[in-house]
Please model this.
Amino acid sequence: MISIQGKGVSTGVALGPLYFYKRAKAEITHETVEDTAAEWERFKEAQAKAVEQLGELAEKARAEAGDEAALLFETHQLMAEDLDYEEAIQALIQDEKLNAVAAVSDTAAQFAEMFASMDDAYMQARAADVKDVSTRIIGILTGAVQGGIDSEVPVILAADDLAPSETVQLDKSKILGFVTEGGSGSSHTAILARTMGIPAIIGVGKQVKEEYAGREVAIDGTKGEIIVDADENTRKLILKKIADQKKTRELLEKLKGLPNKTKDGQSIRVYCNIGSPDDVPAVLGNDAGGVGLFRSEFLYLNCDDYPSEEYQFEAYKKVLSDMGDKEVVIRTLDIGADKQIDYFDLPKEENPAMGNRALRICLQRPEIFRTQLRALYRASAFGHLCIMFPMVTSVWEVREAKKMCERVKKELTKEGKAFSDSVQIGIMIETPAAAVMSDRLAKEVDFFSCGTNDLTQYTLACDRQNADLGRFFNAHHPAVLRLLKMVCDNAHKNGIWVGICGELGADLELTETFLSIGIDELSVSPRAVLPLRQKIRETNVAVCKDSILGTLLGDKTQD
Ligand code: PEP
Ligand code: MG
Model:
């Protein structure tokens, strides 16, 4: 039995085989083959598998976002079986005796160049398609795995760390828990784990060795403990914890349908954070009152090129209509920093967390922003939409973003396209500048939502991705909490509501503080809704408020 200590960032216990995440990048080598017939056969098998995978992806996209989303994968299916493409590969394998991987790679390069040099914009765009299809076939030929997991059974997934673009591609039904070498509590692997309600442990360094792959591993996300090949007694204890976990869940189920009201009658809304229309059943299943943060950039991370207005419209419409009359806050594109997307072609930055990201990109590339806003407003006709801008630091940014909304609404009116006239506009408060300016910003918008992941990072000058900062990264720091109180007061003075959508919202040690400072809404991962409801219902604000505010604002505040 081997015991390893890391940092738990998503609670729960899981037991299963350890599996190392496989990156989809394949090594391409040029080799001469003797048995060209066998090599051709290998290609044909990989091609058939690619077509099958693309068919499955098309069906998934159709179910999630409609016909247009499926079309991309169907085009790729046709491309994979295109006769000219196939003949070019065949010639390289059979005549030049080239290995299949190199034959596909060379053909892809040749076809992509040919498409890119055409005058027609539609044909030019096919260059990206042929490259994409070929990457998939090469991946199959080399055993590199699209989506990271090639296992029949669910696994405990180990990785160095996962980029947001990798997490969106994961087959979630195959994951029992996460273990990562690096990462941090507010990294997107941790956020994903909490959204999925499964345990995650980060910062284990090199302690989880490749040779443990396939062996039974238990992880305890509360303690941050990993056990490889547990002995019989330990295994029994782990199975008991899993059974207890199930029982606690069943008890929490009883809270469904009850109000989020404290003992002394103060109400607070409990909403959910989501990254895809797929997460909505978990939101409704956990009885949340709405969606407090839909990270729309995950739609962009899931695409190989800028998602069209139609693609986005279908996805937003699906979330809004599935949520019925419940409020849905959709955050406009928040890329940059840790969420990089190749096709945006952003210049490399020394310090991307403080660079060109989120609203800054949208204001500088208005066509991208306009497409998203058009999709959002069109979708607003199908539900209760709130639009939220990320990474605000100045009043002028909000004014410009709002102007863009007005322009889009005018366009849609002219085109006779329906949209709701009661869409609320809000901003994230996730920079100290926005918190300090919240008295002025409150006059510009309908609501605030505090992004405590970034607000903590910027206030404490502590990189949220850095697992080594330990106690320096303290989300309970009085500087962060005082800023939250200030934002809350400024919001209420100006008659607007204020929520928290950062990970801190689910921190039960702070629920009393958030209720005491008057937060109106907490947006958390779906599995955190019922534990939070339980905590709210146990709280008596009248009893704890004075001492909490006294400590927070007085000179006895934590040093
Ligand atoms: C935040 O910063 O708290 C937030 C909710 O946004 P993200 O984690 O996506 O940066
Ligand atoms: Mg943020």
